[in-house]
């Protein structure tokens, strides 16, 4: 039996892909199709895929040409697959002419003519686009714009800042078509908003946008009260809108894999999570202004809360907070969570500096994520027997904000309202912790 193998992303499957699969199948008796994983595509620079791996596999299956489907998840896998499956012919489109000649050592390599005039890129451009209006034109918004350009199917259509002068300067700098004079004008010129305003204004803007039927991507911390968060989620649900929190760590490849790896038991039962995030900040900054809900908890708590919830869940028994105060805000807070059979803690600070790493301890070993763990491309799994230690490396492209933008844009386009990467429950619980702190429950001031 002659075995043929071919690979691809097969995003928005079109007749070019179908021709390729048909021709590949005609070369032999058994066709194996390798479909790239979402992470592998990110790693090889494909940020703009619209469909996830499951949807793409289903589409390939539906063509009826594949006798076997495998997923391609790492560079060099083609050689392993050819040997593992006893492949006779490797086939790929002629746009790759010459590139895969190195496989000739293992099997026959055939470049099949590419179908002209059709591509996933073209379909993505023709497809629906998300026109994003930016509310708040500070430093985070400036970082988001270049990152959004790396993601397909979106454009920044308008910006709003209560200061007209700042808004105009920002819009000119980033070539944004509209510097809106009012939030209403912004909402009239977009179908989604990205909220990057001071956090005590998030609720008001998010509500206004959802009421106007716009999808919302909101910076962290989301809102200051659980009741506000619940209200926003229920409006989004009722109106079938995407409401997502822009927590960049939750969408970055290394963190996503750390979660699935530890969930699979590689360090045994998880008994402790400890993480720190400190950023020394000028005392005159808004981030330390008590009237604007500044302070370390409001600014940084959502970062360490993410791994704590992912690894230990949200069923803690109690939390104690220890805060070093100055002018009515916490310059530094240590929080300790008691779970039934585990403990978690974090250190966060705007006026105190410490090592920004994360350690997750289990009954068989521990995970060590060096600083800055919240935007990492690397971690280690360590054991008593050091020979078993393993290092893991991942891509972390640019500022890492493109991962969350990509997730948001593809959710809006595919009208997919379920967020498995950062759930509504986790966001509500993050808000609950911050609310508990603001109300002073178990807060010990130093
Ligand atoms: N293709 C084609 N005609 C088109 C478009 C694509 O023949 N108009 C072929 C490509 O040459 C490739 C296959 O369809 O053989 C899948 O294309 P993509 O989904 O774009 O995947 P690609 O990025 O080419 O990945 O490891 C993955 C492989 O390297 C190929």
Describe the model.
- The chain has 446 residues and is of the alpha/beta class.
- It folds into three domains: 3-122, 3-Layer(aba) Sandwich (Rossmann fold), CATH 3.40.50.620; 128-247, Rossmann fold, CATH 3.40.50.720; 253-395 and 416-445, Dihydrodipicolinate Reductase, domain 2 (2-Layer Sandwich).
- The protein is 34% helix and 26% strand.
- It has 16 helices and 20 strands.
- A nine-stranded mixed beta sheet has the order 19-18-17-16-12-15-14-13-20. A six-stranded parallel beta sheet has the order 8-7-6-9-10-11, sandwiched between helices.
- α6 (139-148) crosses α15 and α10 (226-239) runs antiparallel to α16 (424-438).
- The radius of gyration is 24 Å and the shape is globular.
- The mean pLDDT is 94.
- The structure holds [cytidine-5'-phosphate] glycerylphosphoric acid ester (C2G).
In short:
The chain is an alpha/beta fold.
Architecture per CATH nomenclature, i.e. the level-2 architecture of the largest domain: 2-Layer Sandwich
Fraction in helix: 25-40%
Report strand order across the widest sheet. Answer: 19-18-17-16-12-15-14-13-20
Class inferred from helices and paired strands: alpha/beta
What is the number of E strands?
Answer: 20
Distance between the termini: 75 Å
Largest sheet: 9 strands, mixed
Mean pLDDT value: 94
**Over the alpha carbons, how many angstroms does the gyration radius reach?**
24 Å
Number of domains: 3
Q: Indicate the low-confidence ranges by residue numbers.
A: none
**Overall 3D shape:** globular
Tell me the β content: 25-35%
Secondary structure tally, helices: 16
CATH structural class of the largest domain: Alpha Beta
Could you name the CATH homologous superfamily of the largest domain? Dihydrodipicolinate Reductase, domain 2
The CATH topology of the largest domain is what?
A: Dihydrodipicolinate Reductase, domain 2
The ligands found in this model are: [cytidine-5'-phosphate] glycerylphosphoric acid ester
